[in-house]
């Protein structure tokens, strides 16, 4: 009987020790934040919406994350939280933005604003006015 108690205590202590060693911390998410704005001294008309997205800069049409919401003025702060395991080291990620009014794009990005794999997790996205079609 004494042998069984000793074995139980030894196995219980081993189980506690092993359980403590197995604890795995999940990788923290990748946080990208910044602001999207424009240089023109123009007030936005009421009813504008902005779309801000993280994209694959090398593959047209690949959107990694996207947010769309109503705005009254710019610059517009933004924040994305992506699972760390979803980030591919071989992809060049970037942030793009556009402002629409009555389903017409009035401001958008034309330049690249790379993030994540270049070590930048904060960026200022500059949009330019879209020229009206004649």
Structure in words:
By secondary structure, the protein is mainly beta. Helix content is 15%, strand content 43%. Strands 1, 2, 3, 4, 5, 6, 7 and 8 form an 8-stranded mixed sheet that branches. The chain is elongated, with a radius of gyration of 25 Å.
Number of helices: 1
N- and C-termini, Cα separation = 96 Å
Multimeric state of these chains? Answer: single chain
Rg: 25 Å
What is the fold's blueprint, element by element?
Blueprint: H1 2-21, E1 30-38, E2 48-56, E3 63-71, E4 76-82, E5 93-101, E6 104-108, E7 114-115, E8 122-129
Parallel strand pairs: 1-8
Antiparallel strand pairs: 1-4, 2-3, 2-5, 5-6, 5-7, 6-8
Characteristic terms for this protein:
134 residues, mainly beta, elongated
Concise structural overview:
The chain has 134 residues and is mostly beta strands. It has one helix at residues 2-21; strands at residues 30-38, 48-56, 63-71, 76-82, 93-101, 104-108, 114-115, 122-129.
